[in-house]
Structures are given as structure tokens and as C-alpha cells.
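REQUEST ID: PR-0412
SUBMITTED BY: lab tech R.K.
PRIORITY: routine
TASK: structure prediction, single protein chain
INPUT:
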Amino acid sequence: MRSKLFVPGSRPELFAKALAGDADAISIDLEDAVVEARKDEARATVGAWLREHAAAGSEGKLIIVRVNAMDTPHFESDVAAVVQPGLHIVNLPKPESPQAVREACARIERAERANGVAVPVRLLLNIETPRALREAAALASAHPRVMGLQVGLGDLFEPYGIDRREPAVVQQVLVAVRLAAAEAGVDAYDGAFANVQDTAGYLAEAQLARRLGFAGKSCIHPSQVALANQAFRPTDAEIAHALKVTQAAVTAQANGLGAFVVDGRMIDPPFLRRAQDIVAAARRLGLLPSA
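STATUS: complete
OUTPUT:
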């Protein structure tokens, strides 16, 4: 999931357009993008659209719904309405403890039974509070439904006077979240970038996230989708080197070697795994023939 495009839950006329675009996933938002007076309307609209989408047999793009946080009066109703056969992932804002994550999963399970959902809906957790950052690995490990952690720098920084564009603190948080996700064996995703006109800033932040091992980045406008897809695509040079590494590994293994050299670089298991991941990503994106 290189790119995830946010769509307001109160704008159903945009759903089909987002589905037809180039984002790997769409994230229909019931939280920040919907004013309080329209929460009920948006929830009902999204639930009905998901049922229609599933009935039409549409496949391909991942569909995510960001529900309201668990400490709001909307969370239970959101989950009950949107956990439908057409939904793949619930995006949970501001989880604060492993117990809360497990409770959210229990609510999702109940909604699945009530709504006839056969394929388990997964959970993407937002890391956007100081406590969530401190507990990130425990949150990610709290339940098998958790498929990833997503950074929310605006919520994490702005209330405390931290500059959202300060490179040192951005990098510090990204590294912490990526390592927490790695500990739990799930993916990490970078969050939104608010200045839609600053394409260079978005691309630079996405490229930083990829260098730090993130799998993708949120988009708040369709113009950011191509930038995310570009940033999280393995480069031609990376693919070429990774192919050489994986091919050399076959010979090395046949010769009983645990470490070997490719292009002047020593390759041992961590570097081989990275090369294998790059080759797999290139195949998924259609940049290489299927194995």
C-alpha cells in the first residue's frame, strides 16, 4: 500500500472517483473530515456504500474507513455501520493501550457476525499521541488483526508546540514507529502532509519514510498520489542490485558460503533479506516477470 487517499465520508460523490484513481487504497474518513453535525449521516452513507460495493463484486483497491476514536460517542456506531463485506481495514485513531486495541477488535468481531462479514477486517493503528508513541510496539502486538502502524504527526506535534516540519523530530518519530512495527512484525505507514501545494516537501518526506523502511504514505489530495507511488517504488538501480544479490546467493549457498561479495559490498543474511524484499516488491508492482 504505497498510497492511501483520504476521502471525506460526507462526500459520497467522490468515492467512485477515488476508486478509479491510481491510489493503492482509499481511506474514507468519518473522523476529522466530517463535522459533528454530519457524523450520523456520513456513517449511514458509508455503510450503505460499502454494502453496495460488495454486492457489485468489485475487487482490487483496498478500502479503509477511519472511524472516530474510542473515547468519542461515535466509535461503537461507526464500527457497527461500516464493518461490512466491502471493507478491508478499520483505521483507528488515538489508541492508548493494548487493552483498548483488543476491545476495538472485539467490537469489530461482533460487527462482523452481525453484518455477515466472512473475511476478517484488519486494523491500522494511528500513532498520534505521546502515550501511543511510547507504547507503539505493545499496541502493534496487541492483536493479530493489527496490520500496521500509521504516523500522525499533526496530532502528535501541534498541540505541544513542536514544529511539524522540523526534520530532526520528524525523523526521530519515524524511526521509533518503524522499529516498533518491526518488533511486532507489521508494516509502518507515513501520515498526511497538509500543504498540498508543496509537492517537493511531500516527495522529500515520502522518500525519507521509504529510506526508513516505511511501506507507504497518506494522501489528502489526488495530486499527492503519484508522488507517493513514485517514492515507494524501488528504483531501477535498487532492483538491478537486488537481482544480482539474489542470484549470487544461489551460488554462495551451493558453495556453502554464508557471506559473499556483490559489487564490492559484503552480503550476509540481513542484506540478502533486503534484496529479496526489493525483488518481491518489484514483482508485485509489475516491474519484473512473475516468478
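NOTES: The chain has twelve helices and ten strands.
REVIEWED BY: pending
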